Structures are given as C-alpha cells and as structure tokens.
C-alpha cells in the first residue's frame, strides 16, 4: 500500500459508526489517507471518533436525527475538506439520494454508481432485472400487493409456504414466512408495518419459500472499466429471524462447478447494472444445489472479513482505489481460496430470554488478542455504552484455519477467551452452535437455529467428562482462594493454616464428591472416581482459568459467587457450589425459596418504545394472544399473554419509553 498516489484521495469521511467505521479507518490509515468521523449525541467519545483524524458532530442520538441526515454529512465533508465518503453498511450506504447529493457537491462516493444502487435497491425491480440478465430467480409475484386478501390469493397460486418481503428491506426487517392463509394475512400486515417504520417504504412482495434452504452469497468486485470479478462465496445459513449470526468462507456445500456457475451469474448481473466497487449477490440454494437469486447488496457486507482472510484481498482498499479511478490489478485467475475462515457476530442480546436486546455499559470488554488466526472487528472498548438507538452488534470475531475443522476449533478457543460484562451477550450461544455436531459436519440450512433450538436457548449441553473437568477447575480455584485468604489473615504465632482435602460440589441437581491433594502449580483432583491432574497458573481474582485438566487444555471464564464459582466454557455456564462435607449436610436441610408468580403481569422484556397496545381495561384475553408491540434496536417485538385473564389495569400507552421489567398491564 504505502503513500497515496497523486490521484488518490487525501482525506475521506466515513458516514457510519461502530465497527465498520473503525474497519474502514484501518485501511485508510494504511493507505496514508486521512479520515473524518461523524458522530451523534449517543456516540460522543465512541471509538470510531477517537480513531479518526477529525470528528464532526452531526446531531441527536436517533439515526433519523444524525446518521441518516444527508445535508449534515455533506456539510461535514465541506467543513473538513473530505474528498470522498465511504458509507459502510446500513444507514445511507444504498441510498441513491445520498449518491446524488454527493455528486452534486463534487464529493466522490466510495461505492457503486446511481444506476446500480437504484436498480438493486428495489427488490421487485432487481428480480425483474436479474431474470432479464439470465440469473436464476425464485418463483413468485414481483409486483406490488395492495391488501391481505390479494396476498392470500397470490400465495395460493404460488403454493405455500411463501416468503413475504419488503421491497426496500434488508437485515431481516419486513420479512415473514407464512405456512397458512392466516399467517399470510398477519405476515402481510406486520411486514408492511415494519417496512414502513424501518425504510419509509411499505411495499411488499411474495415469493416461494424454499425448504431446507442455504444462504450462500457471491462477493463481486468491479472497476467500472471492463473488469468484473467474483471473489469466492460465503455461507451465511446460520440465521435467526433472517439476521445472520455465523458466516464462513468458503461454503462447505458448494462444489467447484456450482461455485463457478453462481459466480458467473453474479458477474452477469453486476455488468447489467454497470457495477463498480465491491458488492454482494445473495442466493438461496436448495438441497440439490439449485440456486436462486435473492438480492444484490450494493455495498460492503458485514461478513466481508471472512472473504479477506481466505483470499488475502483487502476489499475496502479495492473500493477506495476503484472510487479514485484506478483499474483493478487482479484477474479472475488471481482469485484463490486458501484455507477457511469463520465469523461470529457478537450481539448485545440475551439468548436465555428469547434473544431480547440488551443495553448498558460494558463494564468489562476483553476480546481475544488478534494474531494470524484471530481477527476482531469492533467499535467499542471497555466502558463503552450500548444504547437502544442502533444495531446491537458489539463485534465480529473471525478465526482462520487451514481446514474448516481447524477454523471452528480456533473459533471455540477464541470465544472461550472473550470476556464481556455489564450487558447480556450471545457468546455462549454462538459457542454452542460451533460445538454442535451438525454444524461441525456442515449440515446447514437457514432453519438450523429454529430446528436445533425450538424452545429457545438454555445453554450448551456438556458431556459428563467435561462436567467433571469443570468441577475440578472450580475446586482448584476455591483452594487457591482459601490459600490466599489464610496467607493474609490470622497471623497468630505458631499457627499453621489447614485446608481440607474433601469437598462436596453441587451443580444444579448434580452432586459430586471431590478429594484433593494440593500443589503450587499442579493439584491432584478426584471427582467421584475420576482422577485428574490440574495444572494452571491461575490465581484468585483472575477472570480466566487457562491450564491443563488431565490431558485436555481448557480455557474457561471464572466468576466468584457467594458460595462458589460460575464457570463459562464451550457455550455453557455452570455454577459450582463448593462446601465441606459437614456444610453440604447442613445446606440440605435449608428450605427452598419459592419463585414469585408473574404470569398475571405483562412486563417489558427489553428497553424500548411501546408502539402498539391491543387491549384495554376489561378486555378478556387468551393465552398466546398478542397484547403489545415493543420496538427496540430497529426491530418490532410482539408480546403475548402467558395466561388467560381479564385486563385489570393498563400502566403504559403507545409512545411511552419503557425499561426492562416495567409493567405494561395487569390481568385478573
């Protein structure tokens, strides 16, 4: 890279925030280009504004008051002398009005031209264009649908199940799967509502829902001067509510012939709209490797790092060079896929409570160290605030390996060493998926999460051997806590502290008998009849245990609790209560505290705004009936009755901002 060429930009503005703003800045800095950040009230002091050479305040916390206000972005460019804008993803990245405004102001757009943005930004029109370009498309109705009854008729003609999708949609918003006429009616209404609130465009269309589908996308790169390349594929089948969770490159499903066919169709579509810059053509692939066009994203994808890891190509650098008028120095023969890369999206959400969004301050944020096999793209640091105003993604954790199995093992190890406190997060969940036998075998579909976790996520299962190994780790942590305590207190002459050898460990309904022989570095531990040697330099107060338990290397998060230790490992969190034999006998005699019955209260499960309230005082409700709609982090969440009853009191009204556990209404 090195110094910028004469025609290269001297300064660019990144019209985005968070991890993607930081990601673009890293490449710009390496190219010798100065960067300008923009920030809202909620992002004052954020990492991306600190990384930039300059930062400009552009408005209030809500995106509609800052990151989506075109005039303020243009003004920030003029104030700082920025010659070009990189939009990242989301916000204004695929907004043709933004492109036009930049062009009028004489500011370069680091992305495709207006023709491509306009053509591919409308899912209805893009599907028609794809068909014209000879790209395989999903059977469906590509025209605007006026009302629920027309939607039902169209769905019947296509054949259930169907997918209802917002024409201007993206990121899973304004998208519903319907398996019955009633679900078509309800899905049509909710998709239109969500599309209107998310994109200001309530048009929806319907297409056939492909069963056992895989989501595989082709990365394209074009210079607008005659060269258009496909840069391999990414498998993005691990999704929840159409939001990608884990991505990888290459796909474990494609053969070379299918990869080539998909790549060539992606190139044909790109050339049909005079594409330049980096872009992605998304396909749905069935179990027979038949593939169908979904949409084209005319921007940098969230999951672009896995492509960079297996190709060695910096996609952001190529975007900047193309926008500056340079030709691509690559040919199709130069594109080689070497090794394997996996990306886990780390979200601020609680997988144990239906993946509800979580907000708050990151009191601890310690990602694994980056090296040749670990990459962390993030926009936060310890102490950063996760707010309700933006997407809940905290970081993207990527790992590389020579093989898929190696990349997965590296991901599990990195997740085991990723420490986040202060908010709820999904590290255990993505760790559990990576440890899942079906995932490791590559038997993926976009239904993976729904099929493997139909009742929600309750933590990863652990083998009995692993449970006993964690018992040993907890006991060793306890012994070292005791040793430290006896060394700094009770300094009585001739007093020799004694630490017992026998322990009783409780984990949920399980009970273990443990005997120990203590050493400084190595400790002999027998859990029931399973003997192992624990070797570790772990010391009290450390957040992480790293060491060998028997023949196994283990890396587990350790948190001290009132009676024991909370250990997190391989997607499971277990509390181990450690007592002496006498203490265990006494604890067994203690009464069990009964939980409070909250089934008669509808409480807000997340911070957000109450958008709709479907009932009033005196209304009779049935179990499962929709009662309210909460909007948080750009998604609508329907709250339903957990029991039959009559509405006794209503404590909130549409438009109210609610905190977690605020009571919305009460039943009798």
List keywords for this structure.
alpha+beta, 8-stranded antiparallel sheet, globular, 668 residues, 39 strands, 28% helix, 8-stranded antiparallel β-barrel
Walk me through the structure.
The structure is a single chain. Helix content is 28%, strand content 33%. The strands form nine sheets. It has an eight-stranded antiparallel β-sheet with strand order 14-13-10-11-12-15-22-20, with helices on both faces.
Extended strand count: 39
Give the termini separation.
69 Å
Low-confidence stretches: 1-5
Largest sheet: 8 strands, antiparallel
Tell me the β content: 25-35%
Number of helices: 17
What is the gist of this entry?
With 668 residues, this protein is of the alpha+beta class.
